[in-house]
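>> received
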Amino acid sequence: MITDFRQHFNFTDEFIQLNNAGMPPLMTAAQLSFAEDSRRLGEQGYGVVPDFIARAEKARVDSAKLLGTTSERVAFVPNFATGASIFAHSFPWRSGDRILSLAEEYPSNAYIWNEVSRLHSVDLTLHPLTDQKTVVWSNFIRAIQQARPAFRLVAISWVQSETGVMAPLAEIAEACQRVGTQFFVDGIQGLGAFPFHMQNLKIDYVCTGSHKWLCGPPGHGLLAFRDDQFLEFRPPLHGAMTYGTPDDPTDFHRPPVPSARKFEPGAGAFLQVFAAHAALKTILHCSEEKIAQDIRSLRESLCRELESLDFQILGERETLKSGGIVTFRSQKKSVVEMSTLLSNQKVLHAAKRTGLRLSPHAFNTEDELQKVVRILKDGQC
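>> returned
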């Protein structure tokens, strides 16, 4: 465990926090940000607005640092689903375009691309998963390379929410580049847990939310672009901020602002932005590389312990091919029975269709994992 990471939280020992792929504890810095900024807003009203606007741009700069792009290419959105929908419905589709995604994707991804297919006469291809809920990435990459006509867009999660299967982003991006396909990534199950740099990886678009591994608040997310291609996108939502500021005279010939802010049509969600920024600064300070190292160490330890009790690990067993998620089954107990057992002992987890999901973050400890394993063993799972 990172020595100083757990100290940035104030959760009690009442629960063992192992549903961090769902919603981890809100970082203390984010809580303090909410308290202080809501107090200031209550005391000063509009008087805080100039400072809030300046601070929002600082948050945008650090968000760009997290993602590996520039601040002009980052839009604040309410959550992943809204950001991905904004992207999907502003993308300049042509009839006959093709999208490649994965079967059994997270619902927000699945529904969005299905709706694009329906509305824009776009063909949606869903690449199958194996019986073990893994992806044969060589076959996925071959599908990109051999598609005729080429896919217009590949849209997948970096880390699969159900099982933690992690996409080889660099290899997929290279395959996309070779055939002129663009690459959209749902980063919500990886950002905050593992280093990411969309410029270096050559990923065209990424969208995320702050309430998972980033340990920020719900109600805030990021939509980011690698280059300036977004200038071709027509925003699906419109307001004063799309074209400038509320103080600018209305001009129906004015183009949208030449930055990703054109996807933010109205008043900013300042309190969410600042709370998310407080959590993000802590993660950057603690080092994404060290956080990733500890998450992988905890995951590997948990997998070994579960295997010693004959649990079946779903997805990728190899830790370097997985996110911070461990999903498993028992031959003795159903997922519901195991979930009830852990719930009774106040172990936070997720009961998924495929199995029971645990997701340790860098603030978790080996002792906590050992306690969970003992609960499962004593429960004859």
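>> The chain has a mean pLDDT of 95.
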